[in-house]
Protein 1
Amino acid sequence: MNAVELHDVSVRAGERGILDSIDLAVPEREHLLLVGPSGCGKTTLLRTIAGLVRPTSGRLELFGRVASEGARVVLPPEQRGVGMLFQGGALWPHLNARKQLEFVLGCARTPREQWSARVAELLEWVELAGYQERLPATLSGGEAQRLALARAIAASPRLLLLDEPLGPLDEELRHSLLAKLHELHQRLGLTVIHVTHAPNEAREYATRTVRMRAGRIVAEGAEAKERK
Amino acid sequence: MSRPLVALAAAVFVLAGLAPLAAMVPRVESADLAAIFAPRNLELLGRTLLYGASVALIATAAGLPFGFLVSRTDMPFAALLRPLGIAPLLIPPMILAMVWTVLADIRGAPAAYAVSSVSTFPLVALFSARAFERIDARREEAARIAGGWRAALRSDLPLVLPSVACGACFAFVFTVNDFSVADYVSWLGQPKFSVYAAEIFANWRIESRPGLAVATALPLLAVTLAALVPALVLRRRGAMASLSGDFRQPEPFELGPWRWPAFLFCLTLVSIGALIPAARLVWEAGGAARGFEFARVGQAFTLAIERGREDLANSIVYSLCAATACAALALVLGHALERARGGRWLESLVVLPIGAPAVLLSVGVIVLWNHDWSARFYDEGGVVVLLLAGRFAAFAILIVSAATAALDPRLEEAAQLAGAGPFRTLTRIVAPSLRSALLGGWIGVFVLSLRELDATMLTPAANRTAMFRIFNQVHFGRDDFVAAMALLILFLVVLPGALWSLFARRRLELLP
């Protein structure tokens, strides 16, 4: 089954077209790399899949369920089974690491008695054990991004959307976070759509690359095959 | 956004702030409208416009350098003078008039111009200071590399001027709508200084012609809106021009030999606006010319608390309730204004209650609530809270909407993706992130309510407040009781900001 299917999806802001008749299918467990220059519509495509942007036309299906039809949103963002790692993390500045994760667990109606173990498990996964009481302002760039990753997967989503997750990090941290993402992708069986403007980023781990330009998909390629 | 919650908050706002104004419209007859163009009205309107524009200009001349010096230079005691500079705005203008007409022996128009300028310069100073410190260091450094400090100033000014103009617009609005200063300086004797707001009051109180009062208010309302709408646009432009995601604080300008003259300039302004008036009131409370004694100050306070206990308690309770109601409204409506499509256009509607002359709003409340079925509400404090909340909610709403504009929308999107509903996102994510703005709005409404005189003058239930007691008492002569009551008001308006400055680690958002 495909995790994501877009059929002729367009997004317009007034007279300006941001996405233009996008057709795309992302099979389950794929790690798709979405590349293209700044302003080409990559983030808008990601936000459309998440339900944060309302399409103007077209059809979007997630795991076989219609998420939006034309301009009508059928599934609101919280019902799409999606986790998202935002550019810069977008951590809630007033909540410490534990509370960031508990907030998500509470929204997902995870029984309260399981919170503590789940928080510990998530922080362990992203190598932030012992950081439970730390506020975002006290974390380094890499730590903050790993906490944002833990938050994105806290509610056990089936689809993980990554919006330029490595942007502000240095070379070493980029590699370590990519390795962590790959590990989680394998371990949790997630489908990953990874947006970046740097084509070489994450190519090592991606199963396929889609290139965008001016709101359109202009090229597709299977990374694994290319590497061979 | 929770639509039911926004609808509920909008309904409360309409009931408190817009319905009283709407209730007045049907009372206007064609004869009333014709009276707008009476020569006396036109003359008063012209005089009031000149008054407002001149005060805004003087406030800018004083406020712009003050704002620059306390926010961007190495001037001594800048951190202390900055919060002190707000005090003249918090002090009721009538109390400033009471002090300076005696101290400087000025009457009529000069007194009104001086007092209103002193009272409103902090508005320009606050807006300027905020704009100066929001200039990104890299922008300034790029200009300095190109052409030194002169080039830096040239690149900074276009970023700051919208905010300065916004502050000047607010100073204009405060001045043309104020009735108490002109009333007080005219009451002192010749030369009198009549303003347009006084004419509206007279048409209601003396002529007992509500339709005429409303018709007379229309030109002032139009003028006020003509100043407020650009102010709202400029405020947004000022914020947009200077803030970016990876912001870096600029270095302070080194004043060199001008450090101490700059300090003296700022200290003079603060002294004229707050320190000297406070000292003068202490002197009056202690017996003044009869022979000052500290023991008498204590006695005056005891007397003021004893005789004015009920008025003081009413003022505090009404202001607390109005501030709390406005903070709740501001969280919902301020956030919705910024996030909803087309919300920015509704800002003009939100500012209508502060754009309308206070007397008009007050008359509207009387028309709306002075009935048999609502007699209990009308005679008690509820109507005063409604009046004050309706009048000042816009300040809190605009402060919160400005703070929402600076809040990363991805914080809310992340909550939404996590499954949090609109109410949970608002209370758990948005409200804590906007706490400085919410508290700033709360304090702003509390202080404005406490010092309000114009709006409360006509409503009988609001006549039992401390400001009205001072207004009444001062017309029967100045004594140590009036001075002590005025000092108590001063203490109350300064207290929340002082507590915040002492104990909070972050700066209060007091500006829309």
Protein 2
Amino acid sequence: MGNNVAITVGGSQGNFELNVFKPMMIHNLLHSIRLLTDSCTTFRTKCVEGLEPVEENIAAHLENSLMLVTALNNHIGYDKAAKIAKNAHEKGLTLRASALELEYLTNEEFDAWVRPEEMTGPRSPN
Amino acid sequence: MADVRIEADTMGELEVPADKYYGCQTARSLINFDIGDDTMPIGVIRAFGVLKQAAAKTNVALKQLDPKVGDLIIAASQEVLDNCLDEHFPLRVWQTGSGTQSNMNANEVIANRAIELAGGVMGSKSPVHPNDHVNRAQSSNDTFPTAMHIAAAEAITHNLLPSVRELRDALSVKADAWKDIVKIGRTHLMDAVPLTLGQEASGWVAQLDADLRRIDFALDDLFELALGGTAVGTGLNTHPLFAQMVADEIANITGLSFCSAENKFAQLAAHDAVVAASGALNTLAVSLMKIANDVRWLGSGPRCGFGELALPANEPGSSIMPG
């Protein structure tokens, strides 16, 4: 990114029939090509290929999240859903406990509506 | 002194190292531009070998150069393009802004190596003259931009693009493997609605796909060459067919789709193609930073961070914190 700034300045400074920032421009361009080439290779071999998901942490964060409440928008409306989330946040409750305490829905409705695996794409209403 | 020889140019005589092929103008540049220690990249030196050889072949074909002299230049420039004579190219990046001295460096090295191959005396400029023969139908002002494009296009094609594609493919494998892992999304660093880890990684893959398209697009501009424009873009001192034929020859030597630029004035006076290529690389760097930061954050921990990704353990990491 720094090389790009210098190349931009050099490229903007041609006068009449000749630009005279040529050596710096090609030096910086080749430097960037080399750095990016090597970075992509080492990033792949030393990091990306060995990446593994830590599924228990991923699941714990998912379950703790209050934003699963968004799934309720289409059933009880944004305002009630927001109250469930705020109530849960203030009292340290789960979304389910908060929803039941406020009596906005039943245990069965919660199970049917709050399903993270069904929240990862568009879904036609039924 | 046995370790120097005397060479002459239009400014007079100068001592040059006996074991180097370069001559007066290179030696003068070392004195006048004793600035820093960044030397001309070897990709540019190879590119000069490519274009000098292509020019000699073209000049012979157009009957503008004695075939015997041409053969000597072709043989000497082959050694330059194979990067066998890199030690004879000592010049700094911080020289005249047109790269004139690097062009003369190439002319001097190829001429003296050709003279040596012919059994002549280095520095005698006979039977091969650096300006009249090696630089025939050329100027620094069209050779250096041509070398810039050759060097950049070769590095991008042979090194950068394969490396980016391999990274893209490795991320794509992960995106597929992680397609059923539902995780929490984060916007403004705050909890958001869920997505799959595969969806998150597919965004990284798409960024790199777009980067590859942008680099390919920039490459098309780099394939256009200035050679044949000579000093100001008019083509003074060249045969009418030189520009087209020399570009074809460069394409032939490199195996890349080089062609003669329609307008040589722009190629000498501006380097918009280099700026555009740099812009494409800049965007790639931005994408890589985003992807790498996501991986860093998701891999933070192991006990006090997000801890959603486990990164390979490559090194100890800290000199004071054990583990």
